[in-house]
Amino acid sequence: MSFGMDEHQGAIIRVIGIGGGGCNAVNRMIDNAVQGIEFISVNTDIQALQASKAQVVIQIGEKVTRGLGAGANPEMGQKAGEESAEEIEQAIVGSDMLFVTAGMGGGTGTGAAPVVAQIAKKLGILTVGVVTRPFRFEGARRSQNAERGIRELEQYVDSLVIVPNDKLLEIANEDTTMNEAFSLADRVLRFGVTGISDLIAVPGLINLDLADVRRVMTNAGICHMGIGTASGESRAATAIRQAINSPLLDTTIDGANGVIVNVTGGMDMKIKEIDEAVSQVRDSASPDADIIFGAVIDENLKDELMITVIASGFDQATTSQSRNTQVNYAGYDRRRDKQNMNQNGSNSDGFDFLKTSERKDQLNRNRAQSKQDNRVDGGFGLPSVSPDKHHTRDDSLDYVEDMPRSSDREVANIVHRVSEDTRKPETKTESLDDDLNSSSQKGSKEKSTRPGRILPWILQDDDDFDE
Fold first, then answer.
1. H or E element, residue 48
2. Neighbours of 245 (CB within 10 A)
3. 107, 177, 257, 322 - which has most CB atoms within 10 Å?
């Protein structure tokens, strides 16, 4: 099978979807008739690949998985990618720009996406990762896998865009289907890809070349990719606000050192609208930001104006704050997790999702100590607390994060009430039950618990301690 494209077509941009989520995103982009892009689908599950609409389809890890998928095991996904590294390289060689998309938290996407990005980096391809973080209701273990996969992927891509799936819940209504919700998330990838490809490939009022894009996106780290569309008198102001403050992302363009702005409109697009959009970007970005912009005419838009903003090069403080928010949202302390991984001799070149024997021994000692502890939860599955201090122990914070979703104030009140009620056991049951019920979303389920001290969510299953 030939993977090349006509060298006279200009910049070669490819999108490679990895795993179930990535391949579905590719299919939806093809359904939306995205032009000028070559699509590649990669999966361990041969049955899922049969539904792919991509021009190039690659089954990876045939020996490792026997075509049955990675079983939500990122290590298996990584091994599958490494087994098929030569075939992956053959598919992407010659690309000027590569978008790597995957749903993080599962097996193939989480494990194989960093392998693909590493191959692209070796080939000198400008590589942008666009990945989703799993829904909160998918469980804490899947969230932990996603965070580790994101950290691994970030080492090899030039720019990384993270779309938290829970953001979809904030903008969806009661009638929104799952397919419609995921289509909204795909907009970030689709318009990001078309925004860049239009700037460098489609003749427009103001065009850019690949060198401009490289200048902003090479080795840029966490990236913001926002889209805005509007019509009417204030369409430019409305569209640029949407793009700068994308409801699907945790990031904004505040403090960005590099920004790409693409303004697309019909024949009635005015130069003042372009000026208004770029001016708002300049006000939000760093004073010394490198801002490049282009304008493209699309007669099909008529009264509508569409603006794509890609921002990168955030300062360390801004990036760190964004990462901390993302990790806390997943329900575990990245710094503590990293320390544990280092103590256990983790290999930074690969995934280490399995607990070592030394780690298990330590966990069993913690469990034995908890049985001697006089601090109990009364059988309600709440974090154990010290009766003489108004705080939970560090390992209980993971459980608080996994409780039914509530505001920070509500969680703080519950934790404070637990500490108070340890002194007043006769009033504990009723008040805590009321607080939990009032903060739960409709239809949410509490985890099954057992009496005694609650262990962190990553250790709740007895099977984890079997040698």
1. helix 46-49
2. 17
3. 107
Give yes or no for residue 344 having a pLDDT over 60: no
Instruction: Yes or no: say if 44 and 108 are a contact pair by the CB < 8 Å rule.
Output: yes
Give, to the nearest 10 degrees, the angle between helix 140-154 and helix 74-83.
Answer: 40
Cα R_g (the chain), whole angstroms: 24
Cβ atoms within 10 Å, residue 129? 26
Mean pLDDT for the chain? 73
222-314: in CATH 3.40.50.300: no
Number of Cβ within a 10 Å radius of residue 336 = 14
User: Beta strands of 183-231 (E only): which ranges?
Assistant: 221-222, 224-231
Question: What digits encode the pLDDT tens for the residues 283-314?
Answer: 999 999 999 988 988 888 888 999 999 999 88
Q: In DSSP terms, which residues pair with 40 in a beta bridge?
A: 16, 56
CA angle 18, 22, 26 (to 5 degrees): 115
CATH superfamily for 6-201+316-354 is: Tubulin/FtsZ, GTPase domain (3.40.50.1440)
Residue spans in the chain of domains classed CATH 3.40.50.1440: 6-201+316-354
50 forms beta bridges with: none
pLDDT (0 to 100) of residue 311: 92
Tens digit of each residue's pLDDT (9 = 90 or more) over 140-188: 999 999 999 999 999 999 999 999 988 888 887 888 888 888 888 788 8
d(CA 316, CA 322): 10
151 close to 221: Cβ distance less than 8 angstroms? no
* Residue ranges matching CATH 3.30.1330.20 in the chain: 222-314
